[in-house]
Amino acid sequence: MMLIPCPWCGPRNETEFHYGGQADVPYPAEPQELSDVEWARFLFYRANPKGLFSERWNHQAGCRRWFTVRRDTTTNEIFQDDSHEAVTR
Amino acid sequence: MAELHGESPLAARAETLAGSSVPGAVQLSEVAFTAQITLRVDPKSPAAERIGTAVGTMLPNQPGQVARTEQLQILWMGPDEWLLVGPEGSAGRIQATLAEALGEDHGSVVDVSGNRTIVEVTGPRSRELLAKGCALDLHRRSFTSDQCAQTLLARAGVVVLCRDADEPSFWILVRASFARYLADWLADAAAEYRDRTRQAASVRTLANGSDR
């Protein structure tokens, strides 16, 4: 069980949250210009790093807001934006 | 034509709740038919200020903060969202007040009275009882009077509202469709206090018997 720091409600149990995948995936500026391959790449291709990963979470059972956290995928340590000190684990 | 009548979501569990209440430990009951209005508005807008003036208290801006007026409790539900809980029958009036104060500005006022019902948990053991199914720290140093939290209680989504931290009194706002499940869970969780009271009583009877 992870303790995820909601920017509004503070640290809460993982079970209160919904995972939203990789953060900062930009929507194509000219989606109609994209080939099928490029469009598929935008829709389905996501990074899967071993280590730090920026991802979206939704505090579903709480304030129902989306936010971004950086998580180390090997240790599940969660870092506040731009910091190298783990907030929770 | 039949008379219109409302039945609260826990009408069928009234006896269960009353029967699981243990004087001196924990009391359970339903607070039915409260008026509940969801308000969404930008907290920094003039509309939010007008609404604050209209209801008689500023909208709470800290997570989990609850503001009270004579009639209303205003619960922080999100950075731009509040739940106003008032006495039975006041939904229309609250809604009109809010809508008038909001005016043409961007925001919304919705009557959600039918969404949730309220289970009142009081008594010295209430924190212990709730802690059996809730991961939050309910100790009064961290969850004090007039604080609320949206969380999971026994896997059901609820709003927990601390009405009084000194003489523990909590309101559990739960969706109508989850209410009976939660009432059953609470009744089950409270069973040990009833058993304990009974045991204590029988131990006393035994002790008195051996004295003779």
TrEMBL record, chain A:
On the tree of life, the source organism's domain of life is: Bacteria
Signal peptide start and end residues: none
Q: Entry's InterPro entries?
A: SoxD (IPR006279), SoxD_sf (IPR038561)
Biological processes annotated in GO = tetrahydrofolate metabolic process
UniProt keyword terms in alphabetical order: Oxidoreductase
Q: Name one GO molecular function term.
A: sarcosine oxidase activity
Group of enzyme by EC: oxidoreductase
Stored Pfam families: SoxD
In the Enzyme Commission scheme, what number(s) does this protein have?
1.5.3.1
Record protein name field: Sarcosine oxidase subunit alpha/sarcosine oxidase subunit delta
Q: Which organism is it from?
A: Prauserella isguenensis
Automatic annotation (TrEMBL), chain B:
**Natural source organism:** Prauserella isguenensis
User: Which residue windows are transmembrane per the record?
Assistant: none
**Protein name listed in UniProt:** Sarcosine oxidase subunit gamma
What's the top EC group for this one? oxidoreductase
What highest taxon heads this organism's lineage?
Bacteria
Q: What is this enzyme's EC?
A: 1.5.3.1
Q: Which UniProt keywords apply?
A: Oxidoreductase
GO MF terms, alphabetically ordered? sarcosine oxidase activity
Query: One Pfam family name from the record?
Result: SoxG
